[in-house]
Amino acid sequence: MLCPWPDQPSRLAHPAVPEPVSTRPSSPRRCARFTRSATRTPPSTASPPRRHRQDDGVPPLAVQGALITACLVDAFGPAPLDGADREEILSAAIRWIAAKIGEPGIGAAFAGVFTDAVNDPALRRILATQLQDPYRLALQDTLGEPEQRVLFLIDVVVGTLLHRLGMTGEPMVDADVDALVAMVLRS
């Protein structure tokens, strides 16, 4: 396997663990760890793997999160906020987000970017402005509800769907989505 950074050791493996000879590149542009001497530090005294830093070519979480957020916005598209009354609009919106979170990879990316945002204020701002605000504003306009009420609705619905996905590894089943819709409509 060629090293993604030809002038630096590979970040994909611990430096104390040699790769099998058959996978070593034969080109003159080898990774630094392939050109070291054959004697290596025993694993018991080896230093731990390097942590990624902003200056080693790995983007900070906010940049990675911005890319993931942009992909999520693209994958979600506009929310279907058409309906004859408040109940139809809410029911359609809840079923829509449940289906989107249930798509392969979408729910995991969604949950992952939120996990990263816990300790990253810049990523939280990106999530709020690029992902949540467009849907929040559309819901506020359509439902005529205040901002805090709509934010609470988003927290309850999306949080419940992501919690189920994280706890079971499966998206919420239709019967439970029906129960969630009924619960939200009662409030």
The count of DSSP E runs of length 2 or more, i.e. the number of strands, is 0
**Backbone shape:** globular
What would you call the structural class? mainly alpha
Give, in order, the helices and strands. HHHHHHH
- The fourth-level CATH homologous superfamily of the largest domain is Tetracycline Repressor, domain 2
Molecular structure report:
The structure is a single chain. The chain is mainly α and 187 residues long. The chain folds into 2 domains: 1-42, no CATH class; 61-186, Tetracycline Repressor, domain 2 (Orthogonal Bundle). Helices cover 57% and strands 0% of the residues. It contains 7 helices and no strands. It has helices at 32-35, 61-76, 86-102, 106-117, 121-143, 147-168, 174-186. Helix 2 packs antiparallel against helix 4, helix 4 (106-117) packs across helix 5 and helix 5 (121-143) crosses helix 6. The longest helix is centred in the C-terminal third of the chain and has 23 residues, at 121-143. The N and C termini lie far apart (57 Å). 14% of the residues are buried. Residues 1-39 have low confidence and may be disordered.
